[in-house]
Amino acid sequence: MVTENMVRTALRDVYDPEIGVNIVDLGLIYNVDVEPEEKEGFVHIEMSLTSPGCPAGPMIITDVHRALQVFEDIKEVDVELVWSPYWNPSMMSEDAKEELGYYD
Prior knowledge:
The structure is a single chain. It contains three helices and five strands, in the order H-E-E-E-E-H-E-H. The protein is α+β, with helices and mostly antiparallel strands. It is globular. A three-stranded mixed β-sheet has the order 3-4-5, covered by helices on one side.
């Protein structure tokens, strides 16, 4: 059975092409729900983008779907874009902050 941790690990292969950091370390993945309400093979992801007008948004969402195709147990992936809380650089992992030179 696929776990939340396995999904998050796979999503580390999805990068924001404008920033060059994966979407997990950027803090764009807000919630991963694997098989909610006993719906077998279903994954619901709540995520954000660095801005509502992010031109790479559609490509990032497509890449999320592609990254999860490695799991035979996953039959359906629902990606929900959310804007609350609004993403900000303080949501990045320490590794991403260091890589991008962000110090808060």
